[in-house]
Amino acid sequence: MYNILVPTDFSIRANNAITLAKVIAKKTKGKVTLLHVVEMSGQSPNSLEDQTNNDANTNVYITNLIKKSEKELSLLHHANNEENIDLSWSIKAGDPYTVIKDYVEKNEIDLIIAGDKGHSQFEDIIIGSLSDKLVRHMNCPVVTVKAAIPERPIINLAYIVNGKGDEEPIMKYLKELNGFFDAKIHLVWINTPSDFKDDIETKAWLSSIASEYDLNNYSISVHNHHEEEFGVVYFADSIKADLIVMGITKKTVIQRLITGDSLAEEVSDHTTRPVMTMKLRD
Asked: Which of 31, 107, 198, 255 has the most neighbouring CB atoms within 10 Å?
């Protein structure tokens, strides 16, 4: 049973995330919680700070905003509620990332599924979208969703081997999805000019990973491309992946300025397919 959290801002991408959560919950007999956070920090123009400097008026504004959100969330719950899904909703107030992090820890969330959002490169480096923050810092897997998701079982899982020997944290979830859906795992190494490996040796290595984790219903591949992120995207397209699965390593702001985003974030930027990431061991 998966305890799934879907943060929602009522956007189309957040609604697409709900669809995927329902697909996974049906197979895992899991629980889905829709969480909306009324933001009370880092306000932009037309937000709380601009509404009033008076505490009483501020409280009225927040109360009205919560009531409006409750109505929207109730309608969203009604539209997605099904007999075979344990679906609930919750509203909190505060900084969205902090609230979600606290909710995940207190409620033993197994999986976060969130709508992905784009920013300019500068905004993303300095601020980062909420989904990016979740991907970088949560200890449970995070799935980011862009496009509409068909309500059908997951068939193909593209697992991008990172070559660092720290597959174990995310492999547990990969195997569980493989078992729940009887989905095929496609293990792939992306060969690039800067990190090129011999095909025969690489396939033997991928086979050893499959044996080490006792995988069933899998394939192994080596995909060549001059840019790693596009190699992942094109490979996922070629197998019609329902989910791209990969690990993520934490970078400081300075590291991101020098080397750019992690591979997982770059892939998420260039694909419309859902991407499951999990922070690997430091």
From this structure: 31
List, in order, residues 6 or more apart from 212 with CB less than 8 Å away: none
Give the length of the chain: 282
Q: Report the predicted TM-score, pTM, of the whole model to 2 decimal places.
A: 0.86
Write the Ramachandran bin of 228: left for phi over 0, alpha for psi from -120 to 50, otherwise beta: alpha
Distance between CA atoms of residues 19 and 12, nearest Å: 11
Q: What phi and psi, each to the nearest 5 degrees, are found at residue 156? A: -125, 130
CA angle 219, 136, 34 (to 5 degrees): 90
Burial class for 160, CB neighbours closer than 10 Å (0-12, 13-18, 19+): buried
Structural domains in the chain, CATH included, are 3-145 (3.40.50.620), 156-279 (3.40.50.620)
Residue with structure tokens 């934490």?
Answer: 250
Opening angle at CA 52, ends 49 and 55, nearest 5: 100
